[in-house]
Specification:
The chain is α+β, with helices and mostly antiparallel strands and about 120 residues long. The protein has one domain: Alpha-Beta Plaits (2-Layer Sandwich). It is built from 5 helices and 6 strands, in the order βααββαβββαα. The chain has a 6-stranded antiparallel sheet. A hairpin with a 6-residue loop joins strand 2 and strand 3. About 20% of the residues are buried.
Length: about 120
């Protein structure tokens, strides 16, 4: 499968050698194919080939979250299929192109669109 990922992931604090070693222990290829160094507060993903990027990110998050790291960001992917991986408070989730509208539209816009089609919408949370 041919998939390329590109985007930025923010860390809540500068990367330490201990955290970098934790990432290396679970996924050496990730460190080799991204822009990631001790002291950085952002991870730059450029042309990273991985068809299971959300799974890769969840493994990395599991490795460094015990060290007090919180990751957030968005990584676009394209190739055999297109979409975006959202990393929100240490949880990575990939969404294909068809599902992106749910993430990128405000609740009010979605409700208006449904009501325009004749649905009655009640927001509970």
């Amino acid at each position: 499968m041919d998939i390329t990922n590109q985007g930025t992931i923010s860390l809540n604090k500068p990367l330490t050698q201990e955290a970098l070693d934790a990432i290396l222990s679970v996924d050496e290829e990730f460190v080799e194919k991204t822009v990631l160094e001790v002291g950085d507060t952002d991870i730059y993903i450029e042309d990273f080939p991985d068809s299971e990027f959300d799974g890769t990110m969840n493994v990395i998050i599991d490795a460094i979250s015990p060290l007090g790291y919180v990751l957030n960001g968005e990584v676009d992917y394209w190739g055999d299929y297109d979409g975006k991986t959202f990393i929100t408070d240490n949880k990575a989730e990939s969404v294909d192109v068809q599902g992106l509208w749910e993430y990128e539209l405000a609740d009010e816009d979605i409700i208006k669109a449904l009501e325009k089609r004749g649905y009655t919408v009640t927001k509970t949370a």
